[in-house]
Design a protein that fits this description.
The chain has 66 residues and is mostly helical. It has four helices and no strands. α2 packs antiparallel against α4. The protein starts with a helix and ends with a helix.
């Protein structure tokens, strides 16, 4: 979790990445940390209401875009 949180903090310093790559990297790091937080806070609700599935779809889309 802490390594992914650092990604979000240092992303603005990564001048070699294109704007699209910045967005994808931020989306992927945010979704992964979000899924971990959801499962840690309330795993039953997260799985019953499809929140994890929705976040995984977002992750898949962000990882494939390019």
């Amino acid at each position: 979790m802490s390594a992914l949180a650092v990604v979000l903090c240092v992303l603005s310093d990564a001048d070699w990445l294109s704007p699209a790559q910045h967005i994808r990297l931020m989306a992927v790091a945010s979704v992964i940390t979000g899924v971990v937080r959801l499962l840690a806070d309330d795993p039953g609700t997260a799985t019953l209401h499809g929140l994890v599935v929705g976040m995984c779809v977002t992750f898949d889309h962000a990882a494939r875009c390019g």
